Amino acid sequence: MRGYTQDKDAYLKRLRRIEGQVRGLQRMVESDTYCIDILTQVSAVTRALQAVALGLLEDHLGHCVTEAIADGGPEASEKVKEAAEAIGRLVRS
Questions:
Q1: Which of 4, 11, 32, 71 has the greatest number of C-beta atoms within 10 Å?
Q2: CA-to-CA distance for 91 and 18, rounded, in angstroms?
């Protein structure tokens, strides 16, 4: 079971909302909307995606990494390394 399984429906709902926002951005560009208005919406979509990413990361740490550490062995170190790399990607983005 994945760490986000219990929240899967909520994640899907959020992602569908973000998908709608991105389609709205496409319409804004197609209709030559003022640049600053488009940038404002891009910022909102970016924040929404970051919120999803942080939620998934929290679920991963709370479930997958915690479980691997409790079980011990080389998988624990691998899960911690994997999480650290994911955090690094999020920080760079």
A1: 4
A2: 20
